[in-house]
């Protein structure tokens, strides 16, 4: 008997547009979070501008649609083939983590050192990519994110449940995100050095403000587009 894999391609398309909308809305708060994590906030606030708040946006703007396409699409595909919300979330997070690490590296290099792509390429190495830390953050985060959203969706609607899911997943993974950001900034010799620097929760408030806002909007966009485009899933 032939095994059939059910794929709803509309979830990939809806995820793509959702990701772009999230980046446009949330990037300034992400920049403030990165400045805080690296101890640069007071310095950067002295010369803050719209341009500085949106520094590094080219990387996530180009990639956000693709990454959300992967995260929502993989989660939907895995779940449609017999896995529960936690399992499909973890698998989705693992896939996203592999792709997110290099993208985050170039973004953070631009945000913290104002380095262009070519300059960042010259300084890159495996330890600075923080691949393992990124995969761990994404797997845990998405393993919480999707189950929380689907648990609340029918009770509170997409906007509120999306915001709550985003805040909860980022709260649980924030220390990992700080470690990842510091590794990718290149300002610390090793992981022991950056942990000893303390202030692992530095930048948490702008992160949570961003998480609530962008995930509320992201899920609203995703559900509306999915509703408008959904047809009978294709089977192979």
From TrEMBL:
It is found in: Mitochondrion membrane. Gene3D superfamilies: Mitochondrial carrier domain. The keyword Membrane applies. InterPro entries: MCP_dom_sf, MCP_transmembrane, Mitochondrial_Carrier. GO terms for cellular component: mitochondrial membrane. The keyword Transport applies. SUPFAM superfamilies: Mitochondrial carrier (SSF103506). Keywords: Membrane, Mitochondrion, Repeat, Transmembrane, Transmembrane helix, Transport. GO terms for molecular function: transmembrane transporter activity. Pfam families: Mito_carr. The chain crosses the membrane at residues 53-74, 86-106. It is a multi-pass membrane protein. PANTHER family: MITOCHONDRIAL BASIC AMINO ACIDS TRANSPORTER-RELATED, MITOCHONDRIAL CARRIER PROTEIN. Belongs to the mitochondrial carrier (TC 2.A.29) family. This is Mitochondrial carrier protein. The lineage of its organism: unclassified sequences, metagenomes, organismal metagenomes.
């Amino acid at each position: 008997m032939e095994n059939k894999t059910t794929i709803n391609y509309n979830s990939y398309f809806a995820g793509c547009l959702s990701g772009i909308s999230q980046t446009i809305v949330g990037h300034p708060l992400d920049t403030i979070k990165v400045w805080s994590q690296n101890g640069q906030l007071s310095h950067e606030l002295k010369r803050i501008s719209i341009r500085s708040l949106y520094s590094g946006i080219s990387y996530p703007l180009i990639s956000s649609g693709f990454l959300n396409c992967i995260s929502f699409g993989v989660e939907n595909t895995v779940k449609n083939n017999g896995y529960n919300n936690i399992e499909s979330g973890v698998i989705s997070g693992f896939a996203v983590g592999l792709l997110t690490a290099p993208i985050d590296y170039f973004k953070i290099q631009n945000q913290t050192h104002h380095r262009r792509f070519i300059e960042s390429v010259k300084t890159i190495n495996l330890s600075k990519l923080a691949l393992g830390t990124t995969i761990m953050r994404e797997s845990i985060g998405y393993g919480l994110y999707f189950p929380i959203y689907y648990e609340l969706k029918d009770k509170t609607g997409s906007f509120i449940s999306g915001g709550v899911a985003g805040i909860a997943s980022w709260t649980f993974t924030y220390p990992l995100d700080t470690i990842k950001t510091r590794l990718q900034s290149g300002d610390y010799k090793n992981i022991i050095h950056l942990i000893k620097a303390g202030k692992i929760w530095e930048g948490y408030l702008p992160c949570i403000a961003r998480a609530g806002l962008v995930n509320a909007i992201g899920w609203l966009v995703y559900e509306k587009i999915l509703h408008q485009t959904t047809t009978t899933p294709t089977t192979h």
